[in-house]
Amino acid sequence: MAGTQFKVMGCLTQGDLHIIQLGETIPPFPLLQPVSNAVSPPIKSILSSNIPANSTWVQNGVTIAGGNWGEGATNQLSLPYGLFVDDDQTVVIADWENHRITQWKKDDITNGQVVAGGKGNGNGLLQLKYPTDVLIDKETDSLIICDGGNRRVVRWSHRSDTTQGEILIDNIDCFGLAMDEQRYLYVTDYVKHEVRRYQLGDKNGTLVAGGNGEGNGLNQLN
Q: Strand order of the sheet with strand 108-117?
């Protein structure tokens, strides 16, 4: 069922039995395509320089955000997508179905704080629509957000009194974001199957990957 998406409608616990009711939802843009049966070449691992190649990980994780049934409250998430972890381990999350960005502090994992959007589904500068990714620009202490449902990339000040954002890039079917040490912004476009690089203030960007149509060639993305 590639491309199928579900949301939790309810749950019931009876003794050792835990029942979860799922409802199928229709996303506003395509998700994963069916996986080909063709054998793919091995993928070379890219490891952070400070993580040893032979590292192992604890198998039981700890919930640091969300995990509470329901939608909309500050202790809840609904279909979260991208996230960014700051140096102090503050986590900002693209809370997709709640049309907002929430921030979770390391010393308070019981409740998040809405730092962008949260004013319903819309295209106003105080709103987001199905955000898919977020990062923190430390130079300006601002959030850069992939506002996927509105086909734009927006910036919100990270200050607590911020009430609306500004449009950095418009008319782009963005899905993911990254920023390098020179503060170049990289944005994926899932419709054009490409990645573009932007200097802040640049509206057009430079193609850095893909852009040759949908496909599996070495000069293509899908």
A: 80-85, 91-95, 100-105, 108-117
All structural domains of the chain with their residue ranges: 68-210
Q: Which two tokens stand for residue 72?
A: 């909309």
| 22, 144, 179 from 84: Cα distances, Å | 28, 11, 11
Cα–Cα dist 119/133, whole Å? 18
What are residue 91's DSSP bridge partners?
Answer: 85, 104
Q: How many whole angstroms separate alpha carbon 125 and alpha carbon 117?
A: 9
| Whole-structure pTM value | 0.76
Q: Which residues pair with 207 in a beta bridge?
A: 196
Q: In angstroms, how far is CA 30 from the centroid of its own chain?
A: 15
Burial of 122 (0-12, 13-18, 19+ CB in 10 A): middle
What CATH number was assigned to the domain covering residues 68-210? 2.120.10.30
Distance, in Å, from the CA atom of 118 to the CA atom of 134, rounded to the nearest integer, reads: 15
107: its two tokens: 């010393």
pLDDT digits (tens, 9 = 90+) for 53-97: 888 888 888 888 988 877 789 999 999 999 999 999 999 999 999
